[in-house]
Structures are given as C-alpha cells and as structure tokens.
Automatic annotation (TrEMBL), chain A:
GO terms for molecular function: cytochrome-c oxidase activity. The keyword Electron transport does not apply. Its main location: membrane. Gene3D superfamilies: Cytochrome c oxidase, subunit III, four-helix bundle. GO terms for cellular component: plasma membrane. This is Cytochrome c oxidase subunit 3 family protein. It comes from Denitromonas halophila.
Automatic annotation (TrEMBL), chain B:
This is Prokaryotic cytochrome C oxidase subunit IV family protein. Pfam families: COX4_pro (PF03626). One of its GO terms (cellular component) is plasma membrane. The keyword Zinc does not apply. Its main location: membrane. It comes from Denitromonas halophila. It is a multi-pass membrane protein. InterPro entries: Cyt_c_oxidase_su4_prok. It is found in: Cell membrane.
Length: 204, 87
C-alpha cells in the first residue's frame, strides 16, 4: 500500500503529490453511512414482503414528479460542486465561490420541494403513524434530509470562507474536496430512495 | 486539460439528466413487470456509478473503496429488484 507513505507529503504539499490524491478520511464515514442506508433499504424491502398490498397502495400515493424534480436538483447541485472543486484545484477563488453559490442556490430547491411534499402529506392526514410504509417514508427521507442539511451547511460555510481567502491553500482544497464527496453521497443515496420509494410506487 | 476535465463533468451531468428522465418515463409508461422494474433499477445503478466515478473520482481512490462501492451499488440494485419481485 503506497498511500500511507504519501499521506503526510500530500497533505502538506499537494502539488508534490505527483498527481496522486491524498486519502481523505471522510471516505471512512461515507462507507459507514452507505452501509447504514443499505441496511435501511433492506429492512424496508423485507417489511414490504409482509404487507405488499399496503406498501404498494401507499407508495402509489407519493408524487413521483416531486421525486423527479428533487433528483434533477440534486444531480445539478452535485455537478456544480464538482465544478467548484475543479476551479479550486486550478486556484481560481472567484470561480470556486461562484460555482459554490450556484450549487447552494440550486440545491436549496430540494428543501422547498421537501417542505411542500411533507406539508401536502400532513395536510392529507398522512403522518409517520398512518401505517408502516409512511413510517419508513418519513424516517428514510428524514434521515436523508439531515444529511442534506449537513451538506448544505458545509457548502455555505466554505462559500463564506472563499470571501476571506485570497489565495487557495491546500487545506481549503482538502476541505472542499471532503465536503464535495459528502455532497455527492447525498445525491447517491437519493438516487436509490427515488427509485425504491417513488418509481417502484408508480409501478404498483 | 482543465477544459477537458470540465467538459467531462458536463457530459456526466447531461447523461445523468437523460438517464433520470428515461427511468422516470419507463416507470410511468411501461408496465411489463418485472422487466420495467429491472430497467428502473438498472438505470439507477448506472446513475449511481456515474456519480461515483465522474463526480467522486472513485477511479482514483484506493482499491478497497472501489471494491466496496461497486459491491454496495450492485447489492442495492439486486436486493431491491429481487425483494420487490418476490413480494
């Protein structure tokens, strides 16, 4: 394994890392997080086996168009964050900030859609206590929403930091890359939630 | 070089949008189960892999991470499709 040897060097002097990226500790968290979500998907699907009709009918009442909209929002936000990382790597502070702000603005749409969606569900009298499907629906999307809020917080913090930064430092790049990785996982998990809850709901 | 990297990201984004809309259209319009369900889940797997490889640069990550995320994604797709189909 070569990366252990490269780590201190790459952290202090990324320009000397010979094109190889330093290992980022956020990956460890992301692996643990993906395992947790994978297990939640499994529990949901196993519960579904016990009451397929109830799950099918409930899932059918979700608004798949809202799910589609939120998927497109997260995909676009992820792309803009990846572009911000690319700008950061070539040392352009202004471009990094502009792209981060664009990512934040686009991604904020996810929260508005979610508020509207939860609001209309609760307005219809559908709460986590309605049935087992909706317990899962609120728990899974709520847990995901917590991730979304954490990621947005990190992006906003980094965007604010760019105002004070005149020259991009290695540490800032590392933070931005870590926040970006986290943000892409928010997108990644939503891709599966969208398919499992909304798209398969349409199919039933 | 820079321009090339950014264009690659743009292509990935456009592909993600097209695959997302395609998956949605199949879910809304094709009801030949389990084929339609298999297609929806396979397309989700394609999207997840694009995010992992294009945005998260998994190709540059250590082997352990590559193996983990590929396995995770395959298990999620097959598990959801399998358990949905037997219900």
């Amino acid at each position: 394994m070569h990366r252990g040897k490269d780590l201190p060097d790459a952290l202090g002097r990324p320009e000397l890392a010979a094109g190889r990226k330093p290992f980022q500790s956020i990956w460890i968290f992301l692996v643990a997080d993906s395992v947790s979500f994978g297990l939640l998907f499994l529990v949901f699907m196993v519960e579904r086996l016990g009451q397929p009709v109830l799950f099918a009918e409930s899932a059918h009442r979700l608004n798949a168009l809202l799910g589609l909209g939120n998927t497109l929002i997260l995909i676009t936000g992820s792309w803009l964050v990846a572009l911000a990382v690319a700008a950061c790597r070539v040392g352009s502070v202004d471009r990094t900030r502009r792209r981060l702000v664009a990512a934040i603005v686009v991604s904020s749409g996810f929260a508005f859609v979610k508020i509207f969606e939860y609001g209309s569900k609760v307005g219809d009298g559908i709460t986590p206590l309605t049935n087992d499907f909706y317990t899962f629906y609120y728990a899974l999307t709520g847990f995901h929403l917590l991730h979304y809020l954490t990621g947005m917080g990190a992006l906003i913090y980094l965007a604010v930091l760019t105002v004070r930064v005149h020259e991009i430092e290695a540490r800032f790049t590392l933070w931005l890359e870590s926040a970006a990785l986290f943000w892409h996982v928010v997108d990644l998990l939503w891709i599966f939630l969208f398919a499992m809850l909304y798209l398969l709901g349409v199919q039933t | 070089m820079k321009r090339f990297e950014e264009r690659k990201l743009g292509v990935a984004w456009l592909t993600l949008v097209v695959v997302t809309v395609t998956g949605f259209t199949i879910a809304e319009a094709v009801f030949i189960k389990p084929l339609s369900v298999a297609l929806v889940m396979a397309l989700s797997g394609v999207k997840a892999r694009l995010v992992l490889y294009r945005f998260m640069e998994l190709n540059e990550a250590p082997t352990g991470l590559r193996v983990f995320f590929n396995a995770w994604l395959l298990i999620c797709v097959l598990m959801i499709f399998g358990l949905y189909s037997v219900a």
